[in-house]
Amino acid sequence: MTMELTITQTQEIENYIKDKDVDYIDLKIELLDHIISDVEHLINKGFSFENAFESTKQKWNKHFRSSSSLYLGFQYSASKIVLKKAVKEFRPFYLLYTLSYFLPFIIFTKISVEFNENTMFAVNTFFRITTLLALLYVVFIIFKVIFSKVKTTYRFILKTQYLGISLLIIAQFVSNYFDTSGQINGIFVGFSFAGLAITYTCHHFYKKHFLEIAKNKQRLSS
Amino acid sequence: MCLDSINNQNTRLHINMGNQKLFKGSLQTIILKLLAQNDKMYGYEITQKVKELTKGELKITEGALYPALHKLEADGLLDVEVAKVGNRLRKYYKLTEHGTKETANKLVEMQEFLKTMQQLVNPKFSLE
């Protein structure tokens, strides 16, 4: 007959996951189940709970070591297993940022096109309105996520994006996206597009964060 | 049994690090193939099954397994089911309809890759 852990032993493992800061709801169920399975496997081979848990911890500690990544910024660290998932999810958005800044920058600094006053007014109005709305939306997301308190990998990704709000703030101080000769300013446009890309990224992970919470509630209640 | 003997077992499982690098790019295909044969599986079960099928030659690390499973789920290839087992919850993965089709495609890709590698490393003994 295979041995199963008691509630107290399971609780001890749950505390270990919490101590290692990997109690993200999108990972916790599986990590807990996997670690318990590892411990049970060793107990069934004849080890005591203490020895089995100690050995299992040695195996898992390397996945729980604090780590950071270029993609999300070296100042943000998380357990290796959380970071690996976060980077996998975030990588396509990193490409989106880079393109949204550098493409307009390259296009508008290399190609010299003069615009008439009506077009200049339309472009300026478009950027003013969209960047202001985007700024308000990102501030809303930040508050919602801070107050939600539940830890998910998506919440961690969102935290790494909050500095991007500075691009949208800078955009509010740009009064004209054109120079005196009527040519569009590639730097300003690049900044604004990157700000809009950050807004889209925040929107994506904000939705995923709350979707994960809803899914988790549903799983626990069923 | 003491801790040293457990650690020795862990060390033995890490001997074939060179092979692990070769297997790394095939992780998603391995997971999909296993799920195609086993209806539904959970994380620990996948690692044990791979170890058993490869006689310990390939060890899927937990750090790589879960991000890969979550990516497959996000891409719509896997579906999740949670069940209570003893005093804990267990997350089972199974293939979606899209996942079943994608598994077939990935296996064809893998076979093509193996054929190409065979021709490269051992051209004299090519089957054609």
Query: Helicity of chain A, in percent?
Result: over 70%
Largest sheet of chain B: 3 strands, antiparallel
What is the share of helical residues of chain B?
Answer: 55-70%
Count helical runs of chain A. 8
Q: What distance lies between the first and last C-alpha atoms of chain B, to the nearest angstrom? A: 53 Å
Distance between the termini of chain A: 29 Å
**Outline of chain A, from the CA principal axes?**
elongated
- CATH superfamily heading of chain B: Winged helix-like DNA-binding domain superfamily/Winged helix DNA-binding domain
Number of domains as seen in the coordinates of chain B? 1
> What sequence of helices (H) and strands (E) makes up the elements of chain A?
HHHEEHHHHH
Strand order across the largest sheet of chain A: 1-2
* Total of DSSP H or I helical runs spanning 4+ residues of chain B: 6
Report Rg of chain B: 17 Å
Which structural class best describes the helix and strand composition of chain B?
alpha+beta
The overall pLDDT of chain A, averaged over residues, is 91
Query: Which percent range describes the beta-strand content of chain B?
Result: 5-15%
Structure summary, number of beta strands of chain B: 3
Described by its quaternary structure, the protein is heterodimer
The overall pLDDT of chain B, averaged over residues, is: 82
Topology:
The complex is a heterodimer of chains A (222) and B (128).
Chain A: H1 7-19, H2 25-44, H3 49-61, E1 66-69, E2 73-79, H4 80-110, H5 117-148, H6 153-161, H7 165-172, H8 186-221
Antiparallel strand pairs in A: 1-2
Chain B: H1 3-13, H2 17-24, H3 27-38, E1 40-41, H4 43-53, H5 62-74, E2 78-85, E3 88-95, H6 97-121
Antiparallel strand pairs in B: 1-3, 2-3
Descriptive report:
The complex is a heterodimer of chains A (222) and B (128). With 222 residues, chain A is mainly alpha-helical. Helices cover 73% and strands 5% of the residues of chain A. Chain A is built from eight helices and two strands, in the order H-H-H-E-E-H-H-H-H-H. The two termini of chain A are 29 Å apart. The A-B interface holds A 4-5, 7, 10, 26-27, 29-34, 36-38, 42, 45-47, 51-52, 54-55, 58-60, 62-63, 80-81, 84-85, 88-89, 219-220, 222 and B 1-3, 6-7, 10, 42-44, 61-64, 66-67, 70-71, 74, 82, 85-91.
